[in-house]
């Protein structure tokens, strides 16, 4: 099967979108809107440049533009937020749910930076270009996002800090 | 020695530190066990986030994300496929449903483009065994809400149980005028009907029930306001008309 370079990036776009917005269907809506724009703007992509970073930049723009309506939607259906797809033991599942829940409590701009760096493993420079913000802003959002997550997941007495899930 | 900054510690945790600074950061960490713990916590957080979302990579990609836009050469490819499928709906004149409860005015003679698309969608999706729909009937509320949101109107999903057809589910399709809602129903013998709902360009108008016979696929369609509806199935015209009447009545109470 011949697949276009755009199509090869779909699984990673879905991973990032899922982590970013939480709800499976809303995340795939975000991916779909991103792909529609990408296909329409393919002539603007420079041959040889990193397509993944280009796609994340498009997704960022779509995400920001839709943030308001999506926020209202998520609030309306808060009780229906599905559990993210996980495998493994009950204990692991709880841990992953905890990660997901804590991420929802993070401001979107910090969530984006943290996920691009930690999950998508973009460099700070790539992250800065994808989000169209200075690298100093990337660093400060990263720092604040991590600190906030640490408080959220290790805050109360009796709760344990996040561990590496093997 | 230059003091080690917060940024340097972050970069060290992410494996993004410039090599020239590594020695300085490591020397700093020897002196600052608190920072060692913070760096380790950041690394654990990175790993926990990857563990949480990596399973998404292994999920099958939904059909709707695999569709490429119809432009240029793609359009020719689809036209070729259309001929292969034997789908050439709509050149035949309209057929007015005289027995229909709703006696709508007779419209012009050529069938609108969405009827072609609806016939193709029926031919493509109704034989599907494993993935006939994207969202199943067990999530009907979600399905209707989702498709309503994408089409920008409040959709209703007809209930055809009295005619022996149960909802299988639905999916979002991409049509010439944007998103399309596609519902699928099935009877006890596995016979399937599909309802295709898409926005129409131009003036709001109504058409009569119109009929197209396409190879084995029968299509009843009508336009109501800004939306076009097409009900397709491999059944007789009379049987399909009966269902089309019920669908129309339910959507226009």
Task: Describe it.
The complex is a heterodimer of chains A (about 170) and B (about 250). Chain A has about 170 residues and is mostly helical. In chain A, about 70% of the residues lie in helices and about 0% in strands. The N and C termini of chain A lie far apart (about 35 Å). Chain B folds into two domains: about 5-55, no CATH class; about 80-250, MucB/RseB, C-terminal domain (Phosphorylase Kinase, domain 1), CATH 3.30.200. Chain B starts with 5 loop residues before the first helix and ends with a helix. The radius of gyration of chain B is 28 Å and the shape is elongated. Mean pLDDT of chain B is about 80; it is low at about 70-110. Chain B has helices at about 5-15, 20-30, 35-55, 65, 70-85, 115-125, 140-150, 235-250, and strands at about 135, 165-175, 180-185, 190-200, 210-215, 215-225, 225-235. Chain B contains eight helices and seven strands. The interface of A and B includes residues 4, 29, 31, 100 and 139 of A.
Any key phrases for this structure?
heterodimer, A: 166 residues, mainly alpha, Butyryl-CoA Dehydrogenase, subunit A, domain 3, 8 helices, 0% strand, globular, disordered C terminus, B: 253 residues, alpha+beta, Phosphorylase Kinase, domain 1, 2 domains, 7-stranded antiparallel beta sheet, 7 strands, 39% helix
CATH architecture of chain A: Up-down Bundle
Main beta sheet of chain B: 7 strands, antiparallel
Number of domains of chain A: 1
The N- and C-terminal alpha carbons of chain B lie at a distance of 80 Å
- What is the CATH domain class of chain A? Mainly Alpha
Structural class of chain A comes to mainly alpha
Chain pair forming the biggest interface? A-B, 49 and 35 residues
Radius of gyration of chain A: 17 Å
Which residues of chain B form runs of ≥5 with pLDDT under 50?
70-110
CATH architecture of the largest domain in chain B: 2-Layer Sandwich
CATH superfamily of chain A: PhyR, sigma-like (SL) domain
């Amino acid at each position: 099967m011949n697949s276009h370079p755009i199509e090869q990036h779909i699984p990673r776009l879905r991973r990032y979108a899922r982590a970013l917005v939480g709800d499976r269907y809303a995340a795939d809506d975000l991916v779909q809107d991103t792909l529609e724009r990408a296909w329409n703007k393919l002539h603007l992509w420079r041959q040889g440049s990193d397509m993944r970073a280009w796609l994340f930049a498009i997704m960022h723009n779509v995400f920001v533009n839709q943030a308001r309506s999506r926020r209202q939607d998520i609030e309306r259906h808060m009780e229906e937020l599905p559990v993210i797809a996980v495998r493994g033991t009950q204990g692991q599942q709880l841990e992953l749910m905890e990660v997901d829940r804590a991420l929802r409590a993070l401001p979107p701009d910090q969530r984006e930076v943290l996920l691009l760096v930690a999950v998508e493993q973009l460099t700070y420079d790539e992250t800065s270009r994808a989000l169209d913000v200075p690298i100093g802003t990337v660093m400060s959002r990263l720092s604040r996002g991590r600190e906030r997550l640490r408080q959220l997941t290790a805050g109360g007495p009796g709760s344990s800090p996040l561990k590496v899930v093997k | 020695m230059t003091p080690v900054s917060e940024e340097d510690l972050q970069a060290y945790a992410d494996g993004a530190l410039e090599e020239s600074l590594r020695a300085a950061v490591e020397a700093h960490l020897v002196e600052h066990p608190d920072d060692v713990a913070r760096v380790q916590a950041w690394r654990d957080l990175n790993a926990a986030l990857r563990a949480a979302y990596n399973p998404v990579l292994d999920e099958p990609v939904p059909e709707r994300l695999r569709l490429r836009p119809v432009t240029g050469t793609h359009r020719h490819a689809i036209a070729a496929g259309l001929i292969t499928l034997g789908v050439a709906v709509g050149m035949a004149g309209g057929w007015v449903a005289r027995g229909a409860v709703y006696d709508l005015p007779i419209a012009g003679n050529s069938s609108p483009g969405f009827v072609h698309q609806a016939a193709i969608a029926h031919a493509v999706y109704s034989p599907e065994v494993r993935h006939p729909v994207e969202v199943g009937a067990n999530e009907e509320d979600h399905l209707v809400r989702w498709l309503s949101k994408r089409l920008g109107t409040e959709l209703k999903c007809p209930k055809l149980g009295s005619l022996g057809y149960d909802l299988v589910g639905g999916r979002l399709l991409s049509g010439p005028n944007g998103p399309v809602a596609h519902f699928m129903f099935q009877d006890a013998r596995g016979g399937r009907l599909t309802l295709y709902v898409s926005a129409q360009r131009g003036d709001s108008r109504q058409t009569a029930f119109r009929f197209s016979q396409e190879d084995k696929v029968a299509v009843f369609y009508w336009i109501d306001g800004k939306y076009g509806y097409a009900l397709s199935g491999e059944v007789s015209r009379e049987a399909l008309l009966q269902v089309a009447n019920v669908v129309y009545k339910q959507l226009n109470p």
